[in-house]
Inverse folding.
């Protein structure tokens, strides 16, 4: 019998996936609402000279600090009133590269069966809804919410409309579940 424990299993993580020490990002909110940002004690200025990080640019700030979510970081947000929020932002798993033209998926192959066609989207819009209300999209294939101004928008994959008979009306209904607003639009 070998000295190795047969019940011990290792994870599939690669050594370069989990850093030993995470970069420490400290975001201090100032009285004016601007954000002072440091990464491991070094100032992290905004990309444009003369601009500043704000709560409105928090998403782009996280993308910049994490290099578009390719590295994990420890975030610490210090509010003006003294409260502190801490979180770990994990790196996303890298997306697999798209197949190249010199490596086409042959019909009938396993790769061809796994390859998905990109959706062909059709936009349907309407107005007169209550801000934030739940909107039903019919032929009931999707739902959406109204914007803060009461407008609604639904993006439909044309494949969702394949079940509609070709001789049918080709219409989509947006129905506001609170306001009762109904918008009917013809789709190509």
């Amino acid at each position: 019998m070998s000295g190795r424990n047969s019940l011990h299993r290792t994870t599939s993580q690669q050594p370069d996936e989990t850093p030993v020490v995470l970069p420490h990002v400290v975001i201090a909110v100032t009285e004016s609402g601007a954000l002072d940002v440091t990464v491991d004690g070094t100032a992290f200025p905004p990309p444009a000279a003369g601009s500043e990080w704000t709560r409105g640019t928090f998403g782009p700030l996280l993308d910049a600090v994490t290099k578009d979510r390719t590295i994990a970081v420890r975030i610490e947000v210090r509010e003006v009133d003294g409260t502190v929020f801490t979180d770990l932002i994990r790196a996303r798993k890298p997306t697999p590269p798209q197949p190249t033209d010199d490596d086409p998926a042959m019909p009938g192959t396993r790769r061809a069966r796994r390859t998905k066609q990109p959706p062909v989207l059709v936009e349907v819009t309407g107005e007169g809804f209550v801000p934030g209300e739940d909107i039903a999209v019919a032929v009931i294939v999707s739902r959406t919410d109204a914007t803060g101004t009461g407008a609604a928008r639904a993006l439909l994959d044309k494949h969702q409309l394949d079940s509609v008979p070709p001789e049918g009306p080709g219409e989509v209904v947006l129905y506001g579940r609170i306001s009762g607003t109904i918008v009917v639009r013809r789709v190509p």
About this structure: The helical segments are 58-65, 110-114.
